[in-house]
Amino acid sequence: MEREPEKREYRQLLMQKQFMKLLIADIISRFGDAIDTIAYSWIMYEITGSESLMALVIGLNFLPTVLLSPFSGALVDRMKKRNIMAAADVARFLIVAAIVTLYNFGSLTAGLIIVLTLLTSIVEAFRIPAGGAILPMLLDRDCYTLGKAAGFSGSRVAELLGYMLAGGIIAFIGAANALWIDAATFLISALLIMLIRYKDQEKEEALNLRSIKSDLFSGFRFVKSSRVIQTVVLIGLLINFGIMPLSVFQTPYVYTYLHMGPEILSYIKILMSVGMMAGAAAVPKIKRVKQGSMASASGICMGCALGIMAITPYVSSLPIKIFLLTISMFVVGTGGGVLNVIVGSLMMKTVPKDMMGRMSGVMAAIMQASMPAASFLCSALAVPFQVPQILGAFGVLTVFSYLMLTWRRFKEL
């Protein structure tokens, strides 16, 4: 059957009014998340004083998503997605408020940081599949790729603005008080989400262990039966595994190996956000290149960028060092933006709407399983090897994977 052509003009999304409410809510919360990323990491390092413990927290942060997402996704299919998303945003507000309050009273410890981080991850294990399940209900089918690209690009713009303002905000009111901005964005997001009007497709069957188990296994069976979904999962695994060394070792890479200050950390995050925004926005506009070819090229470029990062610390010229860092981080961001839009649009096209919740959960669990594994591996490798060597090894592995393991599958997309 011939595929229905997709709309390529972003102005078409203005007619998708319920989607626009979700888009605005996501943009607002993403702005808060960007401030949270810098402020909370600052607080975390101040409390723990340990890079290894921070790496452990990063790895543990992904475990609830991996373990709970298949079950939460099955639950989402039988519940109102809007209510789950709004409740999750309110829960995030309460968690952030607890962090700030405990910190201001001098009661925030490393143990509490781990507990609160895990609670946040548990909440997101429900929020993520609900957000994935509601999206195709708010968009016409011929706007799926466009909507996914707009959402991704809009979030990156908000993230970029948050990164640019975070330093000044933290300097002016302190890291803990900066988190109140993040908390406020969650409340605003929850309010906007509750204003969304759509026809939900949750099942009318009773919620019980048997029905959840049935939905859960049907999700895994769908993955097993669909070559496209298997490819999407493979892309997600490769993205998450390959990028983890950069996420885990970003701070020591800048301080210890580049001998640069915190402004370069902000510069890196801004470059990645701009690259992600550009990559995501470009996908719907590229009409002559198949998505499989775009995915393969993006993955190879990201691997090469990690390789460039590996040699950058050994360059003596500061201008060349900055140039290499700029190119590599922008390429990593662009490749990630392209791949995320392709993954999201293929999923919406392939998965039936009434299965979107459980499939979002199942796929999130499978794709993110590589993240704690990669994080713990990086922690172990950091003992005998230097960070640039680890980045280089992951870069080579990423290029090899996209060249040898996924080329045939990408041709089918």
Shape: globular
Largest sheet: none
Which class do the helix and strand fractions yield? mainly alpha
Average the pLDDT over all residues and give the rounded result.
79
Question: Which stretches are poorly predicted, pLDDT < 50 over at least 5 residues?
Answer: 1-7
Radius of gyration: 21 Å
How many strand units?
0
Report strand %.
under 5%
Query: What letter string, H or E per element, gives the SSE order?
Result: HHHHHHHHHHHHHHH
Distance between the termini: 15 Å
Percent helix: over 70%
Q: How many helices does DSSP assign?
A: 15
Sequence-ordered SSE layout with sheet pairings:
Layout: H1 17-48, H2 51-76, H3 81-104, H4 110-138, H5 144-173, H6 175-194, H7 209-225, H8 227-257, H9 262-282, H10 291-311, H11 318-350, H12 356-368, H13 370-381, H14 387-404, H15 407-411
What does this entry look like structurally?
Helix 2 packs parallel to helix 4 and helix 8 (227-257) runs antiparallel to helix 14 (387-404). It contains 15 helices and no strands. It is mainly α and 413 residues long. The model is unreliable at 1-7 (pLDDT under 50).
